[in-house]
Each structure stands twice: as C-alpha cells, then as structure tokens.
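Same chain as my last thread, 209 residues:
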Amino acid sequence: MGKVHVFDHPLIQHKLSIMRNKDTGCKEFRELLDEISMLMVYEVTRDLSTQTIEVETPICRTTTRVLAGKPIGIIPILRAGLGMVDGILQLIPNAKVGHIGLYRDPETLEPVEYYCKLPEDAVHRELIVLDPMLATGGSACAAISFIKKRGCSNIRLVNLIAAPEGIARVQAEHPDVDIYVAAQDEKLNEHGYIVPGLGDAGDRLFGTK
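reply #2:
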C-alpha cells in the first residue's frame, strides 16, 4: 500500500492558511502555491539516490555527493496543476515536464483524457504527478492510469489538500503510488468540494469562475 505523507512544516502550514482565506486574491494565491510546491518537493525528493564524485574546491580535492539514478519528470494535471510547476522547477531545473488534461463525461461522470504529452523518455524517469486538490480521486486515478498505460512506473502524487475519500480511492486503485499532501482535510461536501478546503483551486489560481 502506498504511503500518505502529510507535511506539517510551519512555513507550509502558514502559507496554506493564507491560501484558504477567501479574501486572498489570485496573484497572492498563485505566488503561495508556487512557494508551497517548492517547499513540498524538497521533502518529496528526500529519498532520491545519490552517488559519490570527486571535485576540486578552491582548497583541495574532496569527495561529495550528486544525484544519481533516474531523472525526474513532472506531470501537472491541467489546469490547476500548472500552478505547481514553476516552484518545483526552481529546485529541479533539469526536470522534464509533461501535461495531462482530463474532463468529466457529463453522462457517465467518468474522467476522459483529452490531452497527454509526456517526456519522450518518461518510462525512465521518476514521475511526480501534480494537482492541488485531491477530492474524489477520480482525476488523479485516471491520470495515473493513463500514464501507466504508456509504460511508466515510479509515480508519486503531490497534492496541496486531500480529502479522505480521494486518498482512499488512489490507494485502492494505485497501491504502488505514494501520496504527498500539505493537509488532509475533513471530508467532501455534497458538491464534491473538499471541506474546509480552499474552493476551486483552478478558478482561484487563474481568476476565473
């Protein structure tokens, strides 16, 4: 079963509290999402493998460590996931970025893929799927399934806020995927919004309704 990692770092919690406030405008909301994403990926990548190399400092030669193993790919789920990309790229500038777009069929209510563009070498990368809100888990599960169908594995899911229902669904359908969140909230309401949540992340990010 994939693990759920909840980050309780004071900086993350402080910034998330400001994002939850309904009076926080889209400019500040966007900046905070960028900052929290950078803080979160610092922890998400804590277990990446390293290798020892030799370097010449201004004083002498020494051994030190650099990243080894599989390179990173980040896959935002359109559209709100885009708000998490820049913060992560500030820490991992060599990461390649894919995109996956989904919409909900109005009759079946099932997620339908309308766009999927992954890095050419995605199967050889550690993939980080991004979406600020993990509500029902439908979109996240569908996105992960579409990525797996293209031969990819080693997938991690990063969300700002998650509902217990969404976590349970991802764990049931993708038990090999670890989930990283800044907060695990109480529940979903009758409209499928996370409670207390922060509203629609995409609308608040881009100033739409």
